[in-house]
Amino acid sequence: MPFKIALFFGFALTTLLRPDPVNLYLIGDSTVKTGSGVGQNGQWGWGSVLSQHFDTTRIKIHNHAIGGRSSRTFVSEGRWDKVLSQLKPGDYLLIQFGHNDSSPVNDTLRARGTIRGIGEKTEEIDNLITKKHEIVHSYGWYLRKFIAEAKSKGAIPIVCSPIPRNSWNKDHIVRPDDSYPQWAEAVSDAQGAYFIDLYELIATEYDRSTPAQVKQQYFTSLDDTHTALAGAELNAKMVAKGIKSLKKCGLRGYLK
Questions:
Q1: Of the candidates 58, 82, 65, the residue with the CA atom closest to the CA atom of residue 29
Q2: Ramachandran region, residue 126 (left: φ > 0; alpha: ψ -120 to 50; beta: rest)
Q3: CB 198 within 8 A of CB 235
Q4: What is the largest CA-CA distance in the chain?
Q5: Which residues pair with 172 in a beta bridge?
Q6: pTM, whole model, 2 decimals?
Q7: How far is the C-alpha of 21 from the C-alpha of 10, rounded, in Å?
Q8: Would you state the pLDDT for residue 34?
Q9: What are phi and psi of 94, to 5 degrees?
Q10: Which range has the worst mean pLDDT, 11-15, 41-45, 225-229, 247-251?
Q11: Which residues are 93's β-sheet partners?
Q12: Burial label, 6 (beta-carbon count in 10 A; 0-12, 13-18, 19+)
C-alpha cells in the first residue's frame, strides 16, 4: 500500500510540475487557412495540416489565418490584437502575408491593399467599405508591427515569404525580383526575426514537374493561387523543412 501511495503521489507531482504545451500561432491569408480550414471548395491552406509535422503532445498549434485578409486588414479587423493578447513568453508566431496585399488600397470590393515595399510611406483614405478614415501603411510596416509586438510579449516570430502561385516562365515557376518574398526577407533581417523562404522552397519542388502536373496535383481547378489538399501537404512539409533549417530556433525541437 505505501508503495502504491508513493506511486500515486509521484504521478500527481509529475502531472502538477509538467509544463504547459508551448503554443505556435499562425497568422496569414487563405493559403494558410481557407474558409473553415477543412477543405472548403476543395481549397486547403498549409496551416490546416501543419500539425502532421509536430509533436502535438508538447506544442499546440493555433491557426488564426483567414481567407481574404492582407497584413493590413488582419490588423484593422482586430484579429491581430486577439492573437497578441494570447501570446506568452516562449510561444512562437508564424507569419505569412502577401497574396492580398497587392489589392487596391481603397475600393468597394475589398479595400485591403497595402503600400508596396517596406518603407514608411502612408496613404490617408476614407475607406469606401468601412466608411472610416484610415491611414494605410506599407507591407513592410505591418510585418514590422507583428514582429515587434510579438517580441514585446516574449514570443518568437518567424516570417515566411508567401507561397508561389501556379505561374510559370517556360519550365520554371516565376521568381519575382523585387516583391513580397524579398520584402519579407528584408524586414525579417532588419528586425532580427527568423525567416523561411517558403516561396523558393515550394517553387523548387514545383520545378521538378511540368506546369500541367503541378496544376493537376497541387492546385484546385478554380484558380492558380489556392492549393488542394496535396498542395497544402506539400507546403506544410516545406514549412517544416524551413523550420528545421533555422539552427538556433527552438521550434525545431518540436518537429517529429
A1: 65
A2: beta
A3: yes
A4: 76
A5: 169
A6: 0.90
A7: 21
A8: 86
A9: -100, 130
A10: 11-15
A11: 25, 157
A12: exposed
Residue 33 identity (one-letter amino acid): K
246: pLDDT confidence band, cut at 50, 70 and 90? very high
Beta bridge partners of 169: 172
CA distance 225 to 156: 28
The per-residue pLDDT for 179 is 98
pLDDT band at 80 (very low <50, low <70, confident <90, very high): very high
Q: Who's near 175: CB < 8 A, 6+ residues apart?
A: 199, 200, 203
Q: CATH second-level architecture of 21-247?
A: 3-Layer(aba) Sandwich (3.40)
